[in-house]
């Protein structure tokens, strides 16, 4: 069960090698989280992440999970919840894709959409139902400011995140009053392995800063978290910028 500050004793990470997810897991383990499940494709990186959390004092496990295999999600996640209550599910998997290549190769674009949206819908609904059955818990969904408005430079990724964001908000409304809390996290550009080599825009942040925002959001039982917070104002301006002008902006 969560403590008086809303922090979890048990954590399930969907996307167990995500830099943001692992920064969040480390932060929560430093507080009071004791059991962590890292779900992801089997790899040395996944095992290494679990080993690191064990050194920090967590009882960490790995479980095979593939966002692109929704037919297996029910069984995989069911096994985790069968082990005991899960206080927090962190949905953190996703791919950035390669915009130029994905425009030329529709199959690659579909893979981005299936990973970021379709896989998340499947895993999100299954997790939400399990949390509702146990009567408590939080589902934290890593969205992105890219979903606020499609940009020429990454509209395939951005559109998938827009769908994910809308889905998570609707799911939160559907679960209101059930004891299950859904929180949408909208980071800006985060300096991770996924964004390595890309130009750093203003307000770029780090996995550790996003993890801090997630913890604060859990304590406040927030429904939406921006990381950094200034992005809320910036994206409000961009969202209402006339389209003819938006096309001219270097975004």
How is this structure best described in words?
GO terms for molecular function: oxidoreductase activity. This protein has helices spanning 19-31, 44-55, 73-82, 99-104, 106-134, 155-175, 207-220, 231-239, 243-246; strands spanning 10-14, 35-40, 59-64, 88-91, 137-142, 180-187, 224-227. The protein is of the alpha/beta class and 251 residues long. Strands 3-2-1-4-5-6-7 form a 7-stranded parallel sheet, sandwiched between helices. Helix 3 (73-82) runs parallel beside helix 5 (106-134) and helix 5 packs parallel to helix 6 (155-175). The radius of gyration is 18 Å and the shape is globular.
Concise overview:
This protein has nine helices and seven strands. The protein is an alpha/beta fold.
What's the structural blueprint in terms of helices and strands?
Blueprint lengths: L9 E5 L4 H13 L3 E6 L3 H12 L3 E6 L8 H10 L5 E4 L7 H6 L1 H29 L2 E6 L12 H21 L4 E8 L19 H14 L3 E4 L3 H9 L3 H4 L5
Parallel strand pairs: 1-2, 1-4, 2-3, 4-5, 5-6, 6-7
Helix pairs in contact: 1-7, 3-5, 5-6
